[in-house]
Amino acid sequence: MSPSSSDPVFELHRGGKMAVAATVPLTSREDLSLAYTPGVARVCEAIAAEPDLAAEYTWIGHTVAVVTDGTAVLGLGNIGPAAAMPVMEGKAVLFKQFGGVDAVPICLATQDVDEIISVVTALAPSFGGINLEDISAPRCFEIERRLDEALPIPVFHDDQHGTAIVVLAALRNAITLLDRKIDDLRVVVSGAGAAGVAVTKMLIAGGVDAAEVVVVDSRGIINAGRGDLTPVKAELAAMTNGSGRSGGIADALAGADVLIGVSGGQIPEAAVAGMAPEGIVFALANPTPEVHPDVASRHAALVATGRSDFPNQINNVLAFPGVFRGALDARATTVTDGMKVAAAEAIAGVVADALRADAIVPSPLDPRVAPAVAQAVADAARRDGVARVP
After folding, report:
1. Which of 326, 329, 346, 388 is most exposed, with the fewest beta carbons within 10 Å of its own?
2. Angle at which helices 369-383 and 320-329 pack, to 10 degrees?
3. Residue 52, domain extent
Protein backbone atom coordinates (compact mmCIF):
# COMPACT_ATOMS: atom_id res chain seq x y z
CA MET A 1 0.00 0.00 0.00
CA SER A 2 1.44 3.36 -1.02
CA PRO A 3 1.07 6.34 1.34
CA SER A 4 -1.42 8.94 0.19
CA SER A 5 -1.79 12.50 1.45
CA SER A 6 -5.56 12.07 1.18
CA ASP A 7 -5.61 8.93 3.34
CA PRO A 8 -6.47 9.88 6.96
CA VAL A 9 -4.70 6.79 8.29
CA PHE A 10 -1.36 7.81 6.82
CA GLU A 11 -1.89 11.44 7.76
CA LEU A 12 -2.50 10.48 11.39
CA HIS A 13 0.72 8.46 11.44
CA ARG A 14 2.90 11.08 9.73
CA GLY A 15 5.82 11.84 12.07
CA GLY A 16 4.76 9.04 14.42
CA LYS A 17 2.16 8.99 17.17
CA MET A 18 4.28 9.96 20.18
CA ALA A 19 7.13 12.18 21.38
CA VAL A 20 9.23 12.78 24.49
CA ALA A 21 8.30 15.77 26.65
CA ALA A 22 10.07 17.25 29.66
CA THR A 23 8.24 17.19 32.99
CA VAL A 24 10.35 19.92 34.63
CA PRO A 25 10.98 23.55 33.70
CA LEU A 26 14.21 24.48 31.91
CA THR A 27 13.93 28.23 31.65
CA SER A 28 16.69 29.48 33.96
CA ARG A 29 20.21 28.69 35.10
CA GLU A 30 18.77 27.50 38.39
CA ASP A 31 16.50 25.07 36.51
CA LEU A 32 19.52 23.70 34.65
CA SER A 33 21.54 23.34 37.84
CA LEU A 34 18.73 21.34 39.47
CA ALA A 35 17.74 19.16 36.51
CA TYR A 36 21.27 18.54 35.32
CA THR A 37 24.69 19.32 36.69
CA PRO A 38 25.55 19.87 39.50
CA GLY A 39 22.27 18.94 41.21
CA VAL A 40 21.71 15.69 39.34
CA ALA A 41 24.90 14.23 40.81
CA ARG A 42 23.34 14.15 44.27
CA VAL A 43 20.46 12.05 42.98
CA CYS A 44 22.89 9.73 41.17
CA GLU A 45 24.89 9.22 44.37
CA ALA A 46 21.74 8.49 46.36
CA ILE A 47 20.60 5.86 43.85
CA ALA A 48 24.06 4.30 43.75
CA ALA A 49 23.87 3.89 47.51
CA GLU A 50 20.24 2.75 47.51
CA PRO A 51 19.18 1.41 44.07
CA ASP A 52 15.48 1.19 44.97
CA LEU A 53 15.37 5.00 44.95
CA ALA A 54 15.46 4.88 41.13
CA ALA A 55 11.76 4.01 41.11
CA GLU A 56 11.02 7.29 42.92
CA TYR A 57 13.54 9.69 41.45
CA THR A 58 13.56 8.63 37.77
CA TRP A 59 10.91 7.66 35.25
CA ILE A 60 11.38 3.96 36.05
CA GLY A 61 8.41 3.96 38.44
CA HIS A 62 5.95 4.78 35.66
CA THR A 63 7.61 3.57 32.46
CA VAL A 64 7.63 0.26 30.58
CA ALA A 65 9.35 -0.98 27.45
CA VAL A 66 7.14 -2.32 24.66
CA VAL A 67 9.40 -4.89 22.98
CA THR A 68 8.93 -6.79 19.73
CA ASP A 69 10.96 -8.59 17.11
CA GLY A 70 8.25 -8.07 14.50
CA THR A 71 7.53 -11.76 13.97
CA ALA A 72 3.78 -11.85 14.70
CA VAL A 73 2.40 -8.36 14.09
CA LEU A 74 -1.41 -8.22 14.13
CA GLY A 75 -2.56 -10.62 11.43
CA LEU A 76 0.30 -9.54 9.17
CA GLY A 77 2.81 -12.10 10.40
CA ASN A 78 6.59 -11.73 10.29
CA ILE A 79 6.94 -8.23 8.83
CA GLY A 80 10.08 -7.26 10.72
CA PRO A 81 11.00 -4.62 13.31
CA ALA A 82 10.67 -1.44 11.21
CA ALA A 83 7.19 -2.31 9.97
CA ALA A 84 6.17 -3.24 13.53
CA MET A 85 6.94 0.24 14.89
CA PRO A 86 3.49 1.79 14.15
CA VAL A 87 1.86 -0.93 16.24
CA MET A 88 4.36 -0.49 19.08
CA GLU A 89 3.81 3.27 19.03
CA GLY A 90 0.08 2.62 19.14
CA LYS A 91 0.52 0.35 22.12
CA ALA A 92 2.57 3.02 23.87
CA VAL A 93 -0.05 5.73 23.42
CA LEU A 94 -2.75 3.33 24.71
CA PHE A 95 -0.65 2.76 27.82
CA LYS A 96 -0.47 6.50 28.39
CA GLN A 97 -4.09 7.30 27.56
CA PHE A 98 -5.74 4.56 29.57
CA GLY A 99 -3.28 3.74 32.35
CA GLY A 100 -1.16 6.84 32.80
CA VAL A 101 1.84 4.62 32.08
CA ASP A 102 4.68 5.93 29.92
CA ALA A 103 5.91 3.41 27.37
CA VAL A 104 8.82 3.26 24.96
CA PRO A 105 8.55 1.15 21.78
CA ILE A 106 11.62 -1.00 21.14
CA CYS A 107 11.78 -2.98 17.88
CA LEU A 108 14.67 -5.44 17.82
CA ALA A 109 16.54 -6.41 14.65
CA THR A 110 16.98 -9.99 15.78
CA GLN A 111 14.75 -13.03 15.99
CA ASP A 112 17.21 -15.12 17.97
CA VAL A 113 15.79 -16.08 21.35
CA ASP A 114 19.08 -15.79 23.22
CA GLU A 115 19.88 -12.41 21.66
CA ILE A 116 16.42 -11.03 22.50
CA ILE A 117 16.78 -12.14 26.12
CA SER A 118 20.26 -10.67 26.33
CA VAL A 119 19.23 -7.31 24.86
CA VAL A 120 16.10 -6.94 26.99
CA THR A 121 18.00 -7.95 30.12
CA ALA A 122 20.61 -5.29 29.35
CA LEU A 123 17.93 -2.63 28.79
CA ALA A 124 15.82 -3.57 31.82
CA PRO A 125 17.44 -1.16 34.35
CA SER A 126 15.88 1.70 32.38
CA PHE A 127 12.31 0.48 32.92
CA GLY A 128 9.83 -0.55 35.59
CA GLY A 129 8.34 -3.33 33.45
CA ILE A 130 8.62 -5.15 30.12
CA ASN A 131 5.63 -5.60 27.81
CA LEU A 132 6.44 -8.21 25.16
CA GLU A 133 4.44 -7.74 22.00
CA ASP A 134 3.85 -9.53 18.71
CA ILE A 135 6.52 -12.22 19.16
CA SER A 136 5.67 -15.48 17.44
CA ALA A 137 4.90 -18.75 19.22
CA PRO A 138 6.42 -20.95 20.49
CA ARG A 139 9.46 -18.65 20.90
CA CYS A 140 7.39 -16.19 22.93
CA PHE A 141 6.86 -18.72 25.72
CA GLU A 142 10.58 -19.26 26.32
CA ILE A 143 11.39 -15.56 26.00
CA GLU A 144 8.80 -14.56 28.57
CA ARG A 145 9.70 -17.38 30.96
CA ARG A 146 13.42 -16.69 30.91
CA LEU A 147 13.03 -12.93 31.22
CA ASP A 148 10.59 -13.36 34.10
CA GLU A 149 13.12 -15.56 35.87
CA ALA A 150 16.01 -13.18 35.19
CA LEU A 151 14.48 -9.79 35.94
CA PRO A 152 13.15 -8.28 39.21
CA ILE A 153 10.42 -6.38 37.33
CA PRO A 154 7.11 -7.46 35.72
CA VAL A 155 7.39 -9.17 32.33
CA PHE A 156 4.07 -9.54 30.53
CA HIS A 157 3.41 -10.88 27.02
CA ASP A 158 0.19 -9.09 26.16
CA ASP A 159 -0.73 -11.30 23.20
CA GLN A 160 -0.97 -14.14 25.69
CA HIS A 161 -2.14 -12.73 28.97
CA GLY A 162 -4.04 -9.60 27.93
CA THR A 163 -6.32 -11.68 25.74
CA ALA A 164 -6.68 -14.34 28.43
CA ILE A 165 -7.61 -11.83 31.12
CA VAL A 166 -10.36 -10.24 29.03
CA VAL A 167 -11.68 -13.66 27.95
CA LEU A 168 -12.02 -14.71 31.59
CA ALA A 169 -13.76 -11.43 32.43
CA ALA A 170 -16.21 -11.87 29.56
CA LEU A 171 -16.86 -15.51 30.45
CA ARG A 172 -17.59 -14.63 34.08
CA ASN A 173 -20.23 -12.13 33.03
CA ALA A 174 -21.63 -14.42 30.35
CA ILE A 175 -22.29 -17.23 32.80
CA THR A 176 -23.78 -14.75 35.26
CA LEU A 177 -26.33 -13.76 32.60
CA LEU A 178 -27.02 -17.39 31.76
CA ASP A 179 -27.12 -18.50 35.42
CA ARG A 180 -24.33 -21.03 34.93
CA LYS A 181 -21.42 -22.09 37.15
CA ILE A 182 -17.88 -21.83 35.88
CA ASP A 183 -16.84 -25.25 37.18
CA ASP A 184 -19.72 -26.91 35.30
CA LEU A 185 -18.65 -25.69 31.86
CA ARG A 186 -17.17 -27.77 29.08
CA VAL A 187 -14.89 -25.46 27.12
CA VAL A 188 -13.25 -25.78 23.70
CA VAL A 189 -10.28 -23.56 22.85
CA SER A 190 -9.61 -23.44 19.12
CA GLY A 191 -5.98 -22.50 18.69
CA ALA A 192 -2.84 -23.49 20.59
CA GLY A 193 -0.61 -20.52 19.86
CA ALA A 194 0.31 -17.77 22.30
CA ALA A 195 -3.27 -16.70 23.01
CA GLY A 196 -4.71 -20.22 23.06
CA VAL A 197 -2.21 -21.50 25.60
CA ALA A 198 -2.65 -18.47 27.86
CA VAL A 199 -6.45 -18.53 27.61
CA THR A 200 -6.48 -22.20 28.56
CA LYS A 201 -4.30 -21.62 31.62
CA MET A 202 -6.20 -18.48 32.60
CA LEU A 203 -9.58 -20.23 32.47
CA ILE A 204 -8.26 -23.04 34.64
CA ALA A 205 -6.80 -20.51 37.10
CA GLY A 206 -10.20 -18.78 37.08
CA GLY A 207 -12.16 -21.89 38.05
CA VAL A 208 -12.88 -23.91 34.90
CA ASP A 209 -12.33 -27.65 35.45
CA ALA A 210 -9.11 -28.49 33.56
CA ALA A 211 -10.43 -31.93 32.65
CA GLU A 212 -13.37 -30.28 30.87
CA VAL A 213 -11.19 -28.11 28.63
CA VAL A 214 -10.35 -29.37 25.14
CA VAL A 215 -7.77 -27.55 23.04
CA VAL A 216 -7.74 -27.93 19.26
CA ASP A 217 -4.93 -26.99 16.89
CA SER A 218 -4.67 -27.24 13.11
CA ARG A 219 -4.18 -31.02 13.37
CA GLY A 220 -7.11 -31.69 15.68
CA ILE A 221 -7.78 -32.22 19.37
CA ILE A 222 -4.68 -32.08 21.55
CA ASN A 223 -4.41 -35.26 23.59
CA ALA A 224 -1.65 -37.26 25.21
CA GLY A 225 -1.77 -39.89 22.47
CA ARG A 226 -0.55 -37.57 19.73
CA GLY A 227 3.08 -37.99 18.73
CA ASP A 228 3.53 -34.56 17.14
CA LEU A 229 3.22 -32.33 20.20
CA THR A 230 5.66 -29.57 21.05
CA PRO A 231 6.65 -29.31 24.72
CA VAL A 232 4.07 -26.56 25.22
CA LYS A 233 1.30 -28.62 23.64
CA ALA A 234 2.38 -31.70 25.59
CA GLU A 235 1.91 -29.64 28.75
CA LEU A 236 -1.60 -28.72 27.56
CA ALA A 237 -2.37 -32.36 26.84
CA ALA A 238 -1.32 -33.35 30.36
CA MET A 239 -3.54 -30.79 32.06
CA THR A 240 -6.67 -30.85 29.85
CA ASN A 241 -9.00 -33.21 28.00
CA GLY A 242 -9.63 -35.55 30.88
CA SER A 243 -11.93 -37.74 28.80
CA GLY A 244 -9.26 -38.29 26.15
CA ARG A 245 -11.25 -36.93 23.22
CA SER A 246 -9.74 -37.14 19.75
CA GLY A 247 -10.73 -35.99 16.30
CA GLY A 248 -11.33 -32.53 14.88
CA ILE A 249 -13.12 -29.35 15.87
CA ALA A 250 -16.59 -30.83 15.29
CA ASP A 251 -15.77 -33.70 17.67
CA ALA A 252 -14.49 -31.26 20.26
CA LEU A 253 -17.57 -29.03 20.03
CA ALA A 254 -20.14 -31.82 20.28
CA GLY A 255 -22.04 -30.95 23.47
CA ALA A 256 -19.62 -28.18 24.49
CA ASP A 257 -20.86 -25.14 26.41
CA VAL A 258 -18.18 -22.67 25.35
CA LEU A 259 -16.11 -22.10 22.22
CA ILE A 260 -13.18 -19.72 22.38
CA GLY A 261 -11.59 -19.17 18.99
CA VAL A 262 -8.06 -17.76 18.92
CA SER A 263 -6.78 -19.55 15.85
CA GLY A 264 -7.71 -17.62 12.75
CA GLY A 265 -8.98 -20.84 11.16
CA GLN A 266 -12.57 -21.15 10.00
CA ILE A 267 -15.05 -23.29 11.94
CA PRO A 268 -18.03 -24.76 10.02
CA GLU A 269 -21.51 -23.78 11.14
CA ALA A 270 -22.41 -27.45 11.52
CA ALA A 271 -19.72 -27.82 14.18
CA VAL A 272 -21.07 -24.84 16.13
CA ALA A 273 -24.58 -26.24 15.80
CA GLY A 274 -23.41 -29.33 17.67
CA MET A 275 -22.75 -27.36 20.85
CA ALA A 276 -25.00 -27.66 23.90
CA PRO A 277 -28.04 -25.36 24.11
CA GLU A 278 -27.51 -21.83 25.49
CA GLY A 279 -23.88 -21.93 24.44
CA ILE A 280 -21.24 -19.20 24.47
CA VAL A 281 -19.08 -18.41 21.43
CA PHE A 282 -16.08 -16.09 21.56
CA ALA A 283 -14.76 -15.98 17.96
CA LEU A 284 -11.77 -13.71 18.42
CA ALA A 285 -9.77 -13.92 15.19
CA ASN A 286 -9.50 -10.45 13.68
CA PRO A 287 -10.51 -9.25 11.14
CA THR A 288 -12.18 -12.54 10.15
CA PRO A 289 -13.69 -14.43 13.11
CA GLU A 290 -13.53 -18.23 13.13
CA VAL A 291 -17.31 -18.21 12.75
CA HIS A 292 -19.23 -15.09 11.73
CA PRO A 293 -21.13 -13.57 14.67
CA ASP A 294 -24.43 -13.71 12.77
CA VAL A 295 -23.90 -17.42 12.18
CA ALA A 296 -22.79 -18.06 15.75
CA SER A 297 -25.88 -16.27 17.07
CA ARG A 298 -28.11 -18.85 15.42
CA HIS A 299 -26.77 -21.47 17.78
CA ALA A 300 -25.36 -19.66 20.83
CA ALA A 301 -26.95 -17.51 23.51
CA LEU A 302 -23.96 -15.15 23.79
CA VAL A 303 -21.39 -14.17 21.18
CA ALA A 304 -18.23 -12.05 21.40
CA THR A 305 -15.56 -11.18 18.84
CA GLY A 306 -12.29 -9.30 18.61
CA ARG A 307 -13.83 -6.67 16.34
CA SER A 308 -15.10 -3.23 17.25
CA ASP A 309 -18.03 -3.35 14.79
CA PHE A 310 -19.83 -6.15 16.69
CA PRO A 311 -21.00 -6.23 20.32
CA ASN A 312 -18.81 -7.63 23.08
CA GLN A 313 -15.37 -6.78 21.74
CA ILE A 314 -12.66 -8.74 23.56
CA ASN A 315 -10.04 -5.99 23.49
CA ASN A 316 -6.68 -6.23 25.25
CA VAL A 317 -6.77 -2.53 26.06
CA LEU A 318 -9.20 -3.45 28.82
CA ALA A 319 -6.35 -5.27 30.55
CA PHE A 320 -2.77 -4.20 29.92
CA PRO A 321 -2.84 -0.50 30.96
CA GLY A 322 -4.38 -1.31 34.33
CA VAL A 323 -2.25 -4.43 34.83
CA PHE A 324 0.96 -2.47 34.44
CA ARG A 325 -0.35 0.53 36.38
CA GLY A 326 -1.15 -1.74 39.32
CA ALA A 327 2.10 -3.69 39.04
CA LEU A 328 4.12 -0.48 38.95
CA ASP A 329 2.19 1.05 41.84
CA ALA A 330 2.92 -2.02 43.96
CA ARG A 331 6.45 -2.25 42.53
CA ALA A 332 5.73 -5.90 41.84
CA THR A 333 8.60 -8.18 40.89
CA THR A 334 6.45 -10.31 38.58
CA VAL A 335 2.86 -10.75 37.37
CA THR A 336 1.27 -13.70 39.15
CA ASP A 337 -1.76 -15.76 38.15
CA GLY A 338 -3.54 -14.18 41.10
CA MET A 339 -2.90 -10.71 39.68
CA LYS A 340 -4.27 -11.79 36.29
CA VAL A 341 -7.41 -13.31 37.81
CA ALA A 342 -7.88 -10.15 39.89
CA ALA A 343 -7.64 -8.08 36.71
CA ALA A 344 -10.31 -10.22 35.05
CA GLU A 345 -12.62 -9.89 38.05
CA ALA A 346 -12.15 -6.12 38.06
CA ILE A 347 -12.98 -5.82 34.35
CA ALA A 348 -16.07 -7.97 34.80
CA GLY A 349 -17.11 -5.94 37.83
CA VAL A 350 -17.17 -2.62 35.98
CA VAL A 351 -20.34 -3.65 34.11
CA ALA A 352 -21.70 -6.14 36.63
CA ASP A 353 -24.69 -3.93 37.48
CA ALA A 354 -25.70 -3.39 33.86
CA LEU A 355 -25.13 -6.72 32.16
CA ARG A 356 -26.77 -7.37 28.81
CA ALA A 357 -26.22 -10.05 26.21
CA ASP A 358 -24.58 -7.44 24.00
CA ALA A 359 -22.52 -5.85 26.80
CA ILE A 360 -20.69 -8.50 28.82
CA VAL A 361 -17.48 -6.44 28.92
CA PRO A 362 -16.97 -2.69 29.26
CA SER A 363 -16.24 -0.45 26.32
CA PRO A 364 -12.50 -0.04 25.70
CA LEU A 365 -13.11 3.69 26.21
CA ASP A 366 -14.75 3.28 29.63
CA PRO A 367 -12.64 5.42 32.01
CA ARG A 368 -13.53 3.22 34.99
CA VAL A 369 -11.68 0.18 33.73
CA ALA A 370 -7.98 0.94 34.15
CA PRO A 371 -8.26 2.35 37.70
CA ALA A 372 -10.33 -0.66 38.79
CA VAL A 373 -7.85 -3.09 37.24
CA ALA A 374 -4.86 -1.24 38.68
CA GLN A 375 -6.24 -1.33 42.22
CA ALA A 376 -7.16 -5.02 41.96
CA VAL A 377 -3.76 -5.95 40.54
CA ALA A 378 -1.84 -3.97 43.18
CA ASP A 379 -3.89 -5.57 45.95
CA ALA A 380 -3.30 -9.04 44.48
CA ALA A 381 0.44 -8.37 44.20
CA ARG A 382 0.50 -7.64 47.93
CA ARG A 383 -1.54 -10.76 48.73
CA ASP A 384 0.77 -12.87 46.58
CA GLY A 385 3.88 -11.49 48.26
CA VAL A 386 5.47 -9.96 45.15
CA ALA A 387 4.93 -6.27 46.01
CA ARG A 388 7.76 -4.06 47.24
CA VAL A 389 5.41 -1.27 48.31
CA PRO A 390 3.03 -2.06 51.19
Report:
1. 388
2. 50
3. 11-153
